[in-house]
Design goal:
4 strands; 4 helices; nuclease; tRNA binding; alpha+beta; EC 3.1.26.5; 3'-tRNA processing endoribonuclease activity; Ribosomal Protein S5, domain 2
Length: 131
């Protein structure tokens, strides 16, 4: 679970990250990131967009729970003051947690947000627990 301070909640925040930030797309998800050069005391924040195109309510909630868990594990590796919006695409509905995690890591690497420490951990956790 993401701590309350690490959640994007307002639509204005989502809009700012998606319009002003960088974007990296993968088969199952798209990550939008906005990094503030001189971050205030705020921590890294994340928000999720899982539309009806992904599936019915049960499927959407399952996908969002998996993404929340994966992002929470990576929050400490993202630069302070960063804001992320993770948008699930329809193939995310049938993806495993490992596949979503691989896509998330690839997108964060492409954006330059994944540190070497996390890369080493993700390479060693290939058969981690499924969510």
């Amino acid at each position: 679970m993401l701590p309350p301070a690490a959640r994007l909640r307002r639509s204005e925040d989502f809009r700012e990250v998606m319009r002003r930030g960088s974007r990296a797309g993968r088969r199952r998800l798209v990550v939008h990131a906005l990094v503030v050069p001189d971050p205030p005391a705020s921590s890294t924040r994340a928000g999720f967009v899982v539309s009806k195109a992904v599936g019915n309510s049960v499927v959407r909630h399952r996908v969002s729970r998996r993404l929340r868990h994966l992002v929470a594990a990576r929050l400490g590796t993202v630069p302070p003051g960063s804001s992320l919006v993770v948008r699930a695409l329809p193939p995310a509905a049938t993806a495993s947690s490992a596949e979503l995690g691989a896509d998330l890591d690839a997108a964060l690497r492409r954006l330059g947000l994944l540190t070497e420490r996390r890369k080493a951990c993700s390479d060693n956790d290939e058969d981690g627990p499924a969510v």
